[in-house]
Structures are given as structure tokens and as C-alpha cells.
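sry for the spam today, last one i promise. C-alpha cells for design, 274 residues
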């Protein structure tokens, strides 16, 4: 079932150039979708159109059958949350506990129920022991986890990550990528990740590639990276494991394994046959 449908959508910040140009795609419920493209390809603009931060002027976007427009924006936003690039810009509460509870307070959840919900989602993101901390005393990865816990507490159908790991150090990136993957195993949640991290694409179910505002590709990650030369033509790289696979392919050795350890075992097995 398609949870999100984007139909012939175009968008321009000014009359001279379309940032999104006649783009159509569907996102199925419960999938983890990455959207990639070079700077200026329209990735973040597309995310803002889906969540209703920008108005859809040409074409149509529907979320769970509801058209994204000014009239329906309240309904749309109850179904999704968005995690932005800079974790420092997302805090409202004076403590981690207050910040996770903020959305629940707006929904007028009773205090006796709120504490259990806050603790449930703090535990889910690994921050139970940090509930009384001030957000500014956390690492970048921990701050993003607080933002994610606050969104999860609202029980959305969709979470959009807009370059959510781009400002984090390697440890923070690893933490958030693992959390995103773990969340994707809950098929009640649909994950959309706008990312420059090519390695992240490998853990997603589907990948949408944008180029100069147009849909360039929409495939499973393995099929996207099988077109390495096409990706390089639009200034995109491929994951390290795909570079290894490509190098062996040039030497007429086909490897089926999905990780380096599996490739080594496969090579050892093939070598033992000779």
C-alpha cells in the first residue's frame, strides 16, 4: 500500500528555475527510503513539500490518502515528524525529560500517563539515564536521539530525517544510523532519510535519486549502485563495498556477498576449487 504518493510535482523558489521538476514516486508503508543527490538536486525541498513546510503549487502529494494542502496540514502533521540537520536548533525543554514531553503536553496527555511514555521512548533511544540532563550538555548524537524520542512519543506513521547525521562526528553518525535502522524494523513506521551518506543507503529498502530537480532513479539500493557509472556522471559516489565488487567484476570475478567478510569467504571458497 502506498502511504505517500508524489504526482507530477514541480516547485520553484523563483520564476527562473524549478528546484523540483515534474517528479513522481510512491513510498510504501513500513519502508525505509533514502533520498540522495548532489547539492541542489532538490532533496530537502522535496522533504519540505511532503511535510507541508512548502506549499505544493504544481502536482499533488498525498499522505495516507490525504492531499497535502493548507486545509489538511493539521491532519498531515499528526502523521509525521521531522528530524533536522542541526540538533541544537530542535530543543525547547530545559531538560531531556521536558523536551521529550513537549509534544505530549501540546496534545494534552495527562501527567500520570506522560511520565511512562517519556520513559518508554527515552529507553528506546538509550537515554534513560540522561532524563534530567540539560540538552546543551549532551553530545551531537545524543541530542539527535532526544529529538527522535520526542517524535516517537507522538507515535507518528512517518519520520523524515533531513540530513540528520551530517553535522555529527563519526561516533554520533554511527549511533543515529543504527537507531534509524532499528526503527525501520518496526513496520508501522515509515522512514524517509534525506542524506549525503552513501553508506547509509545500503541499509535502506529503497533509494530515490534526484538530479537537477528531476527523478533520476528509484530502485533497490543494489540496483542503484549497479549503475555506478551513471551515478558518477551526476557527481555521486558509490559505497566502498560496491567499489570492491566493481574492481573484481572488471577482472571477471562476480561476488554475490553483501559484506566484506562474506566476500572474503566467497573468494576463499572459489580459490579452494582451483
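last one done:
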Amino acid at each position: 500500500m502506498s502511504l505517500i504518493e508524489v504526482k507530477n510535482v514541480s516547485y520553484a523558489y523563483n520564476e527562473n528555475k524549478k528546484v523540483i521538476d515534474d517528479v513522481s514516486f510512491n513510498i510504501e508503508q513500513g519502508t525505509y527510503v533514502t533520498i540522495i543527490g548532489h547539492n541542489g538536486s532538490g532533496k530537502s525541498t522535496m522533504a519540505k513539500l511532503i511535510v507541508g513546510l512548502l506549499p505544493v503549487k504544481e502536482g499533488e502529494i498525498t499522505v495516507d490518502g490525504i492531499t497535502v494542502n493548507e486545509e489538511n496540514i493539521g491532519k498531515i502533521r499528526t502523521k509525521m515528524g521531522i528530524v533536522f540537520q542541526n540538533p541544537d536548533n530542535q530543543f525547547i525543554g530545559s531538560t531531556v525529560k521536558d523536551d521529550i514531553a513537549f509534544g505530549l503536553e501540546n496534545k494534552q496527555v495527562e501527567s500520570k500517563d506522560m511520565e511512562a511514555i517519556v520513559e518508554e521512548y527515552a529507553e528506546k533511544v538509550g537515554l534513560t539515564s540522561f532524563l534530567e540532563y540539560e540538552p546543551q550538555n549532551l553530545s551531537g548524537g545524543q541530542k539527535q536521539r532526544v529529538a527522535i524520542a520526542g517524535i516517537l512519543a507522538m507515535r507518528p506513521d512517518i519520520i523524515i530525517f533531513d540530513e540528520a547525521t551530517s553535522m555529527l562526528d563519526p561516533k554520533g553518525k554511527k549511533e543515529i544510523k543504527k537507531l534509524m535502522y532499528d526503527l525501520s524494523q518496526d513496520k508501522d513506521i515509515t522512514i524517509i532519510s534525506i542524506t549525503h551518506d552513501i553508506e547509509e543507503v545500503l541499509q535502506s529498502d529503497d533509494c530515490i535519486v534526484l538530479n537537477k530537480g528531476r527523478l533520476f532513479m528509484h530502485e533497490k539500493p543494489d540496483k542503484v549502485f549497479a549503475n555506478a557509472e551513471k551515478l558518477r556522471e551526476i557527481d555521486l559516489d558509490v559505497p566502498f563495498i560496491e567499489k570492491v565488487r566493481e574492481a573484481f567484476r572488471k577482472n571477471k570475478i562476480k561476488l554475490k556477498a553483501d559484506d566484506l567478510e562474506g566476500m572474503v569467504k566467497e573468494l576463499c571458497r572459489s580459490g579452494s576449487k582451483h
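The chain has one domain: 2-220. ok im logging off now
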